[in-house]
């Protein structure tokens, strides 16, 4: 009886009978969360930012997103976005650079891979030197939803096949690969379904196409490949190059592909663009 009475007395006084409040995520300091975010990938940060106000606030910290941006982000903001880096938050810079951003009169695009923050660059065929491109007997410009530039070049037939281009760009340190995006056959849609006409494809199995790449730092690469994959886009590897961390100046690239054996014609190929991406992405591409 006495024990029961004292227990009731304690509860009524709000003593040891009341359970203490448990700590929650809201109690974690925002600065601590931001420090943790520095070691996480951008998609993970964005997911956790939806948990509560503390995590959302931590996800906005400039020092978090500066660790995710490439070393040349100021160059990209000024040249590609046309703005001052100081006028945008680091998170906004990252988000905008993850979208395809056109430059050089819309003939080139640059974007960041959302997960890694690594740089990719695409160069439209319109920025390349192509033998006979202005002669409609050889080449046609074709609208295409399968191109990031919405237009591709279709070769009907030619004796001398040669495509070349140049790019001057400030790449972050790392290893990169360069590809030509090609397709044998001409794509169209019938009744909403994708079809590819390969009737004009010829000459690519007789001699290989030669791909070449050189840089202003003296690096060179070359390869040869028969074009044989019909009906689907493929990335044909021209070569790799390395950007050293001590090289802060823009790098000049020269690249080409040619099949200039004039003993036979060749045709029926579509040319979309040139792609430059980190070499670690090669496995993601359908390449030859």
From TrEMBL:
SUPFAM superfamilies in alphabetical order: F-box domain (SSF81383)
Region annotation Disordered: where it falls in the sequence: 1-27
InterPro entries: F-box-like_dom_sf (IPR036047), F-box_dom (IPR001810), PP2-like (IPR025886)
Low complexity biased stretches: 1-23
Pfam (any one): PP2
Ranges of residues in domain F-box: 22-68
Protein's UniProt name: F-box domain-containing protein
């Amino acid at each position: 009886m006495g024990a029961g009475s004292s227990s009731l007395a304690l509860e009524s006084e709000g003593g040891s009978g009341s359970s203490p409040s448990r700590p929650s995520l809201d109690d974690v300091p925002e600065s601590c969360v931001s420090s943790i975010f520095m070691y996480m990938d951008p998609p993970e940060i964005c997911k956790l930012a939806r948990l509560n106000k503390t995590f959302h606030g931590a996800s906005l910290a400039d020092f978090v997103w500066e660790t995710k941006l490439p070393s040349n982000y100021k160059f990209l903001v000024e040249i590609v976005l046309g703005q001052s880096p100081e006028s945008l938050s680091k998170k906004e810079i990252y988000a905008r650079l993850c979208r395809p951003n056109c430059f050089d009169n819309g003939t080139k695009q640059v974007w960041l891979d959302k997960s890694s923050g690594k740089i990719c660059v695409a160069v439209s065929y319109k920025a390349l030197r192509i033998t006979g491109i202005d002669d409609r007997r050889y080449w046609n410009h074709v609208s295409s939803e399968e191109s990031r530039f919405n237009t591709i070049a279709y070769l009907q037939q030619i004796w001398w096949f040669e495509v070349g281009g140049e790019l001057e760009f400030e790449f972050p340190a790392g290893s990169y690969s360069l590809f030509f995006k090609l397709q044998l056959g001409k794509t169209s849609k019938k009744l909403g379904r994708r079809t590819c006409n390969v009737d004009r494809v010829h000459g690519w199995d007789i001699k290989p196409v030669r791909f070449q790449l050189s840089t202003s730092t003296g690096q060179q690469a070359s390869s040869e490949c028969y074009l044989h994959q019909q009906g689907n886009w493929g990335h044909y590897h021209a070569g790799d190059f390395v950007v050293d961390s001590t090289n802060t100046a823009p790098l000049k690239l020269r690249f080409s592909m040619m099949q200039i054996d004039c003993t036979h014609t060749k045709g029926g190929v579509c040319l979309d663009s040139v792609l430059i991406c980190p070499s670690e992405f090669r496995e993601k591409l359908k390449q030859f």
